[in-house]
Design a protein that fits this description.
Helix content: under 10%
Strand content: over 45%
Shape: globular
Number of domains: 1
Radius of gyration: 15 Å
Number of strands: 14
CATH topology: Immunoglobulin-like
Order of helices and strands: EEEEEEEEEEEEEE
CATH class: Mainly Beta
Structural class: mainly beta
């Protein structure tokens, strides 16, 4: 039986609403073998990483869409997809502690004019144990024009900068 979910990145990292034209949608479905993820949103034509499409360290420094899935045991996966086929998939054993990386079973990215669509499949065997909590993010722009967008923003006076590993902001899926 397939379970499907959708997350909408519709606000800034600190909880301010963004225009509909800036929203990014992440849909994911799971069965016993595969987690299928599709991200669709605006393409900002930011500079690309200086490496060929594929696994890319520090992809969060570029235009990217991210999905985080937190497992019941505190482990989580960080899935980053760039609009040109770059990706970074980290398995973290606990808060900010990367354990390993994973390559997708399949990946495809399509960029048309000002929109992108990226899809990938991951092995369910590498995903954290259910139930999951999730958050999703989109990052784009350079310098003073850098934007950090979120599905579930952080609206807390003690938080002064984006922290996508703030696990308390993740919601059940």
């Amino acid at each position: 039986m397939k379970k499907s979910h959708e997350l909408v990145i519709d606000q800034t990292w600190d909880g301010k609403k963004i225009p509909m034209s800036e929203m990014t949608y992440i849909r994911f479905s799971e069965d016993s073998q595969v987690l299928a993820i599709t991200a669709e949103g605006p393409f900002h034509n930011d500079p690309l990483p200086m490496v060929a499409p594929g696994p890319t360290p520090k992809l969060w420094e570029y235009e990217v869409t991210e999905l985080f899935l937190l497992g019941a045991d505190g482990s989580y996966v960080e899935i980053e997809i760039g609009p040109a086929g770059h990706y970074l998939i980290l398995i973290l054993s606990e808060y900010r502690r990367p354990k390993t990386t994973v390559d997708p079973l399949w990946i495809e990215t399509i960029t048309k004019s000002d929109r992108f669509k990226a899809s990938l499949h991951l092995p369910m065997s590498k995903m954290p144990k259910r139930p999951w909590r999730a958050n999703a993010y989109a990052i784009h722009g350079t310098g003073n024009y850098r934007k950090y967008l979120a599905c579930h923003g952080i609206n807390a006076p003690d938080v002064q900068a984006p922290d996508f590993h703030r696990l308390s902001s993740f919601k059940p899926v």
